[in-house]
Predict the 3D structure of the following.
Amino acid sequence: MTAKRNVDSLLRLMAWMSPAFPVGAFSYSGGLESAVDDRRVSNAAGLDEWIALSLRRGTLWNDAVMLCQAWKGFEDRAVLDEIAALSRALAGSAERYRETILLGDAFVGAARAWPSSVFERLPQTPTYPVAIGAVAAAHDIGLEDVLAAYLHAGLSQLISAGIRLGVAGQTDGVAIMARLEEMVADVAGRAGSTTLDDLGSATIIADTAPMRHEVQATRLFRS
């Protein structure tokens, strides 16, 4: 039974984090498009650094902390309401807010294909990491596993955006993914023991990029 449960958990994570899962993640760049337009990211090395900073000290780190809290509090409606409210408040721009809310709503809608009572406890507007954390916990998926899968999906999304923006090729993208693999594992391990006191970022340019994107003349992505 344990082996089957592990396989079930893996299959669900693969489905939920797949680019084919209907959340629309492909349409967001998290401000990367603005950074490319401003020539702050102009090649594969710059894309690698941009993603690594997000993992260690930026949006992906804060998302991992919020996912952890939602995973731990998935059985308590009041806790989920509080975590979701804080997660929404952390969105530093209108585009970032829409991105995490719309991804969260889309994830919840699609994940209902796997029935669970957790959907009745989630707030009406959960952010993406909060929705994933709570739903994963309700399906007995390990915290470090879902953290690693979420972070890997996040870096894959940014790599894909970088390729479409022309700052890296597919071979570059695979190389970045390979180089950051150990960092993803490390961040997932650290995030699994975090509290809300561990929230915070040190990526001011990346955090303000979605704000600049709002007034960018030509845009391929929604953020």
